[in-house]
């Protein structure tokens, strides 16, 4: 008899950002019971769990709003104790600003944070020591707004996606330099394969300008870092924002769907899709409907459960990744239009 995907998760916690809360909400991973909310400064976006220090890092990206439509960019990260559910420190990266993407190298004790460009510098990645919480330096990405950032398992190569720049920035993490620009027509979320041989990048950029002209085909570009080129594309019907790779080799993509509405320039949001591929064979395995505007995807350490946060419906869908059945939908409190965003799975203390 197959074991329930919830079995053995007692004491594990799912942490969820409410962008306009502004807060981080905590849920029991076995029962979905709401454990409480931690108010944080505006406006939180992404989360990253450091198992070595047993801390959550949360980017505080804007004073209000979102990319290209905000009331000013913030400069801080909140460091959170997930057990006591309190902020233990606010790390200020000034003059760097607009922190968003997070990638962790537990072996070297390094946290990489993408930041937006300023008048005197291009966008880049700030390197933080996870034990001292202090910045060690920055790596330029030669793009105005690197938004998501991911590293290979060896901790040697990093990838920054750029919404407007027509390339993905590839950086050498050991030397701290930009080494390549892979031609991609604007990009969103990304993930790196377990062997580091490929990066999977959502493209094109999800532009809501409504401008005329032919758009590039939607899908996930497969990048070979050795040749710094796109070697394949996994097609999708709709534009993709978040991309996530599970420990079992499943590639998860969040498709944004809109429906036509008379008098509305962009239409209205329709339920999104969680689309699942096999990262090795690049074959499509199936899909399941989720909430409005999927923006972040995560999974349990064993790769059995997927979590999809949807910012407009302000919900998190919990999905059995073996059966592609939605097991639950968590409601995340919000004060404005933007709700559920960053996600992190926190295993119970040893």
UniProtKB/TrEMBL annotation:
Gene3D superfamilies: YVTN repeat-like/Quinoprotein amine dehydrogenase. It comes from the Bacteria. Signal peptide: none annotated. InterPro entries: Host-pathogen_enzymatic-act, N2O_reductase_N, WD40/YVTN_repeat-like_dom_sf. PANTHER family: DIHYDRO-HEME D1 DEHYDROGENASE, PROTEIN NIRF. This is Surface layer protein.
